[in-house]
Amino acid sequence: MFNKITLDESRNLPFWRRPVTLLFLMAAALPVAFSTWFALLNNFVIEVANFDGADIGLLHTIREIPGFLAVGVILVIIVMREQVLATVSLLLLALATAVTAWFPTLGGILTITLLSSIGFHYYETVNQSLQLQWIDKERAPKVLGWITAAASASTLVVYVLIVMTWESLGLTYNIVFLVSGGFTAAVALFCLFAYPQFESPTPQLKKMILRKRYWLYYLLQFLAGARRQIFMVFAGFMMVEKFGFEVHELTALYMINLIANMIFAPLIGGLVARFGERRALLFEYAGLIVVFLAYGGIYFFGWGVMLAMGLYVVDHILFAMALALKTYFQKIADPQDIAPTAAVAFTINHIAAVVLPVLLGLLWLISPGAVFIFAAGIACGSFALALLIPRHPAKGNETRLSRPMSAPAE
């Protein structure tokens, strides 16, 4: 379990025991628990606990607190290796998901959500760090695209089973939560014991760092967290509250998203590698402006359910382009900064995420459309900042405002 080998030595291992394979396996296991929880969440809290918009906003604010505290990962990796922390965090997420239906009250749901969120956010923080350490810069966009596709394929299998069996077998929330959480827990234990500990080529700093030259990355992360929360909290809630979607109908919509991600995520990875991070992010943010404005139009002008469903799918495809933000940082970062900066960036990403859901949940009670107009404004800010990303980002050429003597910023 705890034998250590370098990345170079790992090339002599069987393919299934190599670092990138481990990344794929964990990426495929996490959505089985998390995406099942997410697919059932809106119906579960409305039917079992009678949630309204304010309650769902509070739930997601609680869920994002561990993300805001992700900087604590830096303290944990002083005593625990990143790879071990990733698998242990995945196990915590899985176990919390498995017992979700055992706590059908507001307090119980908030508590179990907090536990699962600690697992999810600490896993995501460390996983992002491991991806950037274990995958070389030239291959990173394409490999990250394929990892995204693998996660979508895994989730698709789960959603197909939910759609096909939810009504026909009379499934309950408890059964689905137990099965999905139990499966992810089993995979997490396998990852913990079946793989050696891979040594990254550059030892990571185990302290919090904030570097001035990463300022653009920090700001883009902050705005990304804000608009992501608005989509995750309110887009699905809209489908249930406004259009009356049931579990199998909402899950079918998620399935369409997954198929789209399986098709487009690898293509997006190739496009980022070919055209660069700036163009990819500008395209993403421009698309999100249009999508969020159209979401608002659904409430202000009474546009129908088919448009809402189409926007939901387009939204997911655009979010897949967020891998360009990872590879942008990989290109500008000092190798030893990757782990601590991943933790700091995750915290920055969740500053708005802790505050916005509960505040916008209150705004939702007054004007749901205004919530999405606010999101469009955030996307406009992201677009403006992305214009500052150079065509060929690198250390010393982090923004178009920093022009090194040896290389042009464009």
Question: What does this entry show, briefly?
Answer:
With 410 residues, this protein is an all-alpha fold. The chain is built from 16 helices and two strands. The protein is 74% helix and 1% strand.
Which geometry do the CA atoms define? Answer: globular
**Poorly predicted residue ranges:** 405-410
Quaternary organisation of the protein chains: single chain
> How far apart, in Å, are the first and last alpha carbons?
47 Å
Helix content: over 70%
Beta-strand proportion: under 5%
Instruction: Please report the number of helical segments.
Output: 16
> Care to count the β-strands?
2
Can you describe what's shown?
There is one protein chain. The chain is built from 16 helices and two strands. It has 410 residues and is an all-alpha fold. Mean pLDDT is 83; it is low at 405-410. The chain has a two-stranded parallel ribbon.
